[in-house]
Every structure is written in C-alpha cells, then in structure tokens.
# Entry
Amino acid sequence: MERREFLGNLTGPVFVACAACMGACSKGGTTASTNPGGVNPPANANITVNLATSLLSVGSSVVQDGVIIVRLASSNVPASFTAVQVACTHEGTSINFNSGSNQFVCPNHGSTFTTSGAVVLGPAARALKQYTISVTGDTLTVTG
Ligand code: FES
# Structure
C-alpha cells in the first residue's frame, strides 16, 4: 500500500474520532447530568403531573421534559407550585431545589435562583424561564 493510499484510508475514521473528542471537550468540565435540554429553556412545554401520586410533600420536585416542578405549599392550587427550566443558564447543568433555603441551586458552580427563577447568586447571569401552572382536580399542568 502506498503512503498516500494509507493516509487516504485514515481520513474518515480520524476525522470522526477528532469530531467526537472536540464535542466531548467543548462542555468545559461539566458532568453527565449537564445540559439536558441545553442552556436555553424548552419551548412549548405541555406537561401534566398526577398530584395523587407525585409532589405529595412540600419541597418535593419532579423533572419532566427539561422542566423542574416543585411543591412549595400543601394546597392543590397553582400558587403552591413553581416550574422552571432545569438547565442552569450558566452552562446547562441540572439544578436542584433546596427546600431549606427555598431556592434552586446549581451543583456545578453554585449559582442560586429564587422559586420564580431570578438569579440570587452567579456565575449565572440570566434568570431561569418560569412556566405557567394550572391545577384541575389532581392534575397539574405546566405550559409555556
Ligand atoms: S452550570 Fe450552573 S452555575 Fe455553572
């Protein structure tokens, strides 16, 4: 096999390997839970949660379709819940809800957000998108 022919045969696989490496390296130290839906919020959310089986206690949360939904109070009315994008606006890591501080916290670099998604502490500079909640009987619906 001539050198030129040998290099020609390597081009395809080498390119694929480099592209995969560059994609993996571009996340900049993030974890496997990073960027489930990108830094930007999911659009046109239409999520339902059965309140007879989920979000039973104050402070509990569920994540569906890139949105984290939290019960903030015991009654089944919209004001008892909040729903925001789960991807941190800094680099896309999934945020958690801290019921002690009543804030969303990003485990990656420590950004914190209010229950309505406003930034309390950076490095995130942009608020989380908050979604609209309605409750009918035991069915909670998130839209936005
Ligand atoms: S990814 Fe959330 S603070 Fe950096």
